[in-house]
Amino acid sequence: MQINWNYIKISVLIVVVIGLYGFADYRSKGREIQEIQIKFLGDNNLYLTEDAVNKLLIQNYGPVKNRAKEQVVLNSIEEVIKANPMVKSAQVYCSIKGGVISEIVQRKPIGRVEGISKFYLDDTGKRMPMSRYHSARVPIITGKITGKSLEDAYVILDFINKDDFLRKNVIGIHVEEEGKYQLRFRVENFVVNLGGVQNLDEKFKNFMAFYVKATKDNTLEEYGIVSLEFNNQVVCTKI
Question: Among 1, 115, 135, 215, fewest CB within 10 Å belongs to which?
């Protein structure tokens, strides 16, 4: 009988490859986690610190460093981090060198509610608690705070943040009642009666036309109230 040495060689090679893979997998699972690395993504990284994340993991998951790799459940670590109210999203994975890397995106506040309860309104329109590490410089929301008025405040702030002039100059939204909102500016003495959140684009176009003209005429200081509540017009009340 003629022996097919090619088949034998291939079979031996397959056995060796499987053995090496199994050995490498065994070594990998037995390897200890050398470090846990916290990475904050984006430019909004002020409301949660690396130390705070490490403490959070120790309290809710236990120590990660020096634990066997096979004992570390990445999904569980991810869920612990995501549960923090300052976290918008998180992804956890192992590095080639045997560490655990956590990439975190923090939430972004766009307004601060000042009332019986104090909290931020974030860029998705949800409530966000105050941070012990940083106080955001965002417009302050005051007045009759309700679920509906917060939804409207978010619509106003979202519009304001898309305009460079408004983003730099609007410092506050006062809720007189649902559907009746007032804006406060950084420099000017007047307040702007916005009314509701309908037709914001048209209202602010009218306001900017008034602002440019009044600035040119040096008459801004003469006005105490600027109303945008009426269709396609700006009604001003002098001081």
Answer: 1
